[in-house]
Amino acid sequence: MSILAKIAEIENEMARTQRNKATAHHLGLLKARLAKLRRELITPKGGSGGGTGEGFDVAKTGDARVGFVGFPSVGKSTLLSNLAGVYSEVAAYEFTTLTTVPGVIRYKGAKIQLLDLPGIIEGAKDGKGRGRQVIAVARTCNLILIVLDVLKPLVHKKLIEHELEGFGIRLNKQPPNIGFKKKDKGGINFTATCAQTELDAETVKSILAEYKIHNADITLRSDSTADDLIDVVEGNRVYIPCIYVLNKIDQISIEELDIIYKVPHTVPISAHHRWNFDDLLERMWDYLQLVRIYTKPKGQLPDYTSPVVLPDGRTAVEDFCLKIHKNLIKEFKYALVWGSSVKHNPQKVGKDHVMEDEDVIQLVKK
Known about the structure:
The termini are far apart. By secondary structure, the chain is α/β, with parallel strands linked by helices. It has ten helices and 16 strands. The chain has three domains: 3-42 and 176-234, no CATH class; 64-172 and 238-287, 3-Layer(aba) Sandwich (Rossmann fold), CATH 3.40.50; 291-365, Roll (Ubiquitin-like (UB roll)). The strands form four sheets. Strands 2-3-1-4-10-11 form a six-stranded mixed β-sheet, sandwiched between helices. It has a five-stranded mixed β-sheet with strand order 13-12-16-14-15. Strands 6-8-7 form a three-stranded mixed β-sheet, with helices on one face. It has helices spanning 3-16, 21-42, 76-84, 131-139, 153-166, 201-210, 226-234, 254-261, 277-288, 317-324, and strands at 64-69, 101-107, 110-116, 143-149, 169-171, 178-182, 188-192, 216-220, 238-240, 242-247, 266-268, 290-295, 303-311, 332-338, 347-349, 359-365. This is Developmentally-regulated GTP-binding protein 1. Residues 64-289 form the OBG-type G domain. Keywords: Cytoplasm, GTP-binding, Hydrolase, Magnesium, Metal-binding, Nucleotide-binding, Nucleus. Its main location: cytoplasm. Residues 289-365 form the TGS domain.
């Protein structure tokens, strides 16, 4: 029996099962089995396997990577060529783009790599079309732009989200607040710091037993679902911010546009007429959460043209040194920082000081 047939069987059983307290335990088990089968689909067992297909993975350049995901012919290539000036083959029939087309834009001093991924079809997570490779590239992005046709957005949005979820990509979510630690002995130690609506000790044990884990500490710090627990146990989930780009707004009325603007995480644009690109770029910048640090050589003015760009959460002075050169930290004595992260300008700081956007730094070596 093939993996796909097994998956279909489990999905059918889940659809048949009523959801209530008595069946929660059974559904949790089925979800865990499903997650395991999905993982086998993504990473086939053993063997050297076929090549990944030519020209798929693109070298990572710039400070952040943004992937365009969407069905064929929603205007991803038009959007890329108008944003970055890169010519990605554009035609009126479906599946024009067959491999990943990279482009780079400079925005607020940061270099952002844009990837035009081939169109996704339904069933990509089960290995149909070029889906598996497309989604594998999408996993490496810092931000995903789901490009939708404004005339048929909701159907597409649901399908694409379902495909990405099946590959372990979680959009606009935070990792679940669950502590999970394997042990050698001592059984399953289950603690919940707040009231749980779905999980209880029994369900948690059965889900872990499905993964052949019989000794572990589980701490639930928020009201979690079985899916959250499975995500933590699998440990290969990526949490990526996402913007829904509704293209072709030149085909709808102003009243409809006002309604669209109220939807969260959404930017309406027209790639063909280049409408509302500035709003899209601004929103991309907000979601990427990049921090710009300007350098200042001794006795000179700061260089405001080419900042060193760091990802949010890794903005200590040490990270800054490593970004420039890995040997720099060995010679590091202290740094002088001007900006919003210090109490007085300039302030003498050590390598653990965390900097904020648009700070100016001067390094002093030993």
